[in-house]
What does this fold into?
Amino acid sequence: MSEENGNHANSDRREFLKTAGAGLTAAGLILASENHALARSLTEKDKLARIASNTWPMRFLFKSRSTGRRSNPQAEEMKKKCGEITMLDFPRFTKDIFPGVYHMDLWSGVFGDVTEVMAVF
It folds into this structure.
């Protein structure tokens, strides 16, 4: 292959990559704008249907064995403000604290009442 043909081939590859990159960027922008428009068209009810409360951030409120644990001032403050709950209390707690949110993500580590668990052993 002559040097002139080699340069022409490299030029064609560069142009192809530039064109392909521009096409992918344009396609990405179009898809992103469609998704953005879809998100804006959700009603308040639709938005609430997409979220859930989660037990993990509330874990300090759940009854637990305090043996061997250091006192957590933030957890104690949360318990004073919201009270202490069990997993059975969590649905009502969610409904009261987060009106309109009905989906829940339950973490198994906070299931049950500690006094009931200790009675088994």
